[in-house]
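Q: Predict the assembly, please.
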Amino acid sequence: MAQYDFDTALVKRAQSGNERAREQLFGQLEPLLRAYFIKRLGEQSVVDDLVQNTMLRVHDGLDDLNRTDRLKAFAMKAALFEVQDYYRGRYDAKENLYDPELPPEEPGGGAPVEASVDVERALDTLKPQARRVMELRELGYKYREIAEEMDTTEAAIKMRVKRAFDKMRDALLAVVLLLSQALGG
Amino acid sequence: MKNKHDPLVFYDALSPEEQEELREELADNSDRAEALRMWQAVRAGLRERLRERVPDRRVLVLYALDHAGRSDLLSDDEQATLEEARPDLERALREHPGLAGAVRRIQQDQTDFEAVWDEHTSTETPSRQRASGRQSRQPAARRQGQRSASTSWRRWASRGALGVAALVFVALLVLLLQRDRAMLTATAPASSTRVVELADGSTARLAPGAKLTYPDPDEWTVFARRARLDGRAFFDITPQEDRFTIETPTAAATVLGTSFGLDAREDVTTLTGVEGRVRFANRETEERAVVVRGGQRSRVARNALPSTPTRANMSEALAWTNLFLFRATPARRIAERLSSFYDVTITVASPLANKKVTGTFEQNRPVREVLGVLATTLQAEVQPQEGGGYRLVPAA
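A: Predicted assembly structure:
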């Protein structure tokens, strides 16, 4: 494995516009970031993007780095921000697949789906652990990652999710039933 | 154990074919369709609430580092950002147990990153590296003879992929370096504005302290229609076939030819359109861009989508430009504005009162000069009045 020393002189030369220093700096940074993202996410398909985006963050911010001995902290924050951005966008594309494909349930179905569901009531039925799982999922974490975070198995986490689904469905259907009875009676 | 609801609960884990199959099934099963609709609605609602509570995930990272006792990793600006966000963030952490889990995961990420960094930057001497390399390579060499041809093929394929990745990276680096060589940076003094003329004749009027990085007119560059702004500036972009893009810390504004004001701060950028149309998007995602027209404004916060453009009072919204910005404004209105600003009576003869004027005037010019330009536009003349003040009348 290649091993480097990011000395402050190199960072200073890169900041001052020395092209060779910049090439050397980013050439050394690239495999380090790649190693981190592979270790962290293990998904080769996204690692290239994350490495490049992080390099761009470092590149764009390099001139504003006042203390050249802080490159490590600077690059680390860039990488952590990038991971958070990745998580934030992880499920956005997938979660909307269902609704646009189906005809609206009711006239005026263009309204947001959430508008007709009492989200708070549904979430209130959950115990803190189940809610934690749900929230981590919506923050972009995979069930495997949630299991690691909660020191349990992926199967156990999925079981919690299924129970959460059942509880919320029962609670929401009960409301629908009450409403329809009230309107009908 | 699987049950019939599993495909609904884990809908996003299904393959496209499985999703299609499920959709067909749900078309004939309204109860299950309703259950899926509710489930997705709850998840979307929860996601939205989390986004409302933590609109900027970077702050969560800063909080996690600080909370781990590593405030030394934060810059002064980041410390200030964190302190400002801390009350809301701590309330959100109390209400959302998942956020606490995310904080712990970020702290683990920090530890992992430092381990990888230390591994790559250890201070082993070259001779020791070579020696340890030989030791570790020898068993591998013995194993190598036992490897199958397919393993070898995969290794070369993997090397090929890495080679392509390296080439892409080098190309990116060359572009970045080329961009840097061909870019200039202008900074307005702390107490006055500065006007920068760009290569294509467009102008940027920088408010005090603003910094603009823009293409060097004397250097060819593929970034000729791109600039970067930190601070506030008023742009008058010359129409050309190529679009002009101005990046800020949070947003990207793309135009063909127009004038508008940009207030670019670290965490939020506000665009106020004066003329023409501007495509305005988050710089990172470019998702759901909005089109801002003259007289409208929109904002892009970090990690957020642009706000829906709303009507804006240009004079107020762009007061910092120190410009009079009139777009199809009746002459009598202009007179009122100038009267108020210069504290002098200015009137307009009735044949001119409703004539509309489009123009930009610098506020630091003498009133007589501004009125002279206005009179030329209106085909009028300026008559000084006895006792003070001015009156615009049709030219003789």
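Chain A touches chain B through 83 residues (CB under 8 Å). The two ends of chain A are 76 Å apart (CA to CA).
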